[in-house]
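Project standup — Tuesday

K.O.: blocked on the structure for the chain from last sprint. Re-posting the sequence here as requested.
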Amino acid sequence: MRANPMEVLIIDALARGSYGKRMVTVDAIGAGPRTVAGVLEDLGANVELTVAEKVLENPHMLRKYDVMMISAMSIDEKTVARIVKMWRRQRGSRVVIIGGPIASDPAFILRVGGDIGVHGEAEPVIEKLIESGIVDEKGIDYTRLKDVCGTAYVLDGRLIVNKRCPIMTRQMWEKYRPSTRAIQGYPLYWAARVYVETVRGCSNYTIPELAEVLPEELLPDKPVPGCAYCSVIPLWGYARSRSIDLVYREVKELIDYGVHRIVLSGPDFLDYGRDWLVEPHPLVDPRNPGP
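H.V.: unblocked you, prediction finished:
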């Protein structure tokens, strides 16, 4: 047991681009950073969630934290690199963990100067890193990090990419509760559209016949599931729905904190509840059973 709780700062840098400021959808608050905050709260850490703009305006606020975590997309790489540089000036070699869509390219960790990238579903990875003490106030235990799936890191100047973690079952996913308290870290959160994750993954595993559509030189090396348009299936796997009770409780708590606009989100909301009808098998058919 730690004598004092770990102080962790989570920074939402999503859609901040190269400028460090969100230029579009300024009133949207995604569910990812709050989900990570919930994992850390359950582990007893002191967690603060803030936005990239606030850190860029006041780098000195970084001084009080033991670990920094950033959620970002690939377009946000320059902003992430700026924040990491500020962290190094204030906190030296203290640990930086970065996740979100940016981690789909593990080599990003080299470019931005972070310590650990988390790819795939973050909850079990963050839980493992913190609960087991692989990451703490003193640094990283690399001898044990090599066995943690869903991570990428730099060791002796070389990029190490561990295998992806297995897709969580619905029951495993539902044990992680997003933080509602952390919503207060967003400016004007009471006026924003706050997203609540209800469905994760996608059921469209149908393999399309592309040979009659694309010229031979454009055909993929292996069959691509679904519409092949987005990265939901490679990142999140088959569709899983959170229980009505868990969604209700999260929405109720957000309202109690003063949130007025809530969006029930999912890659395909018509998948909601269909997975319950085929359990224990995964939902990999976009048509059957019907919504």
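K.O.: great, moving the ticket to review. The chain has two domains: 7-161, 188-277. The chain has a mean pLDDT of 94.
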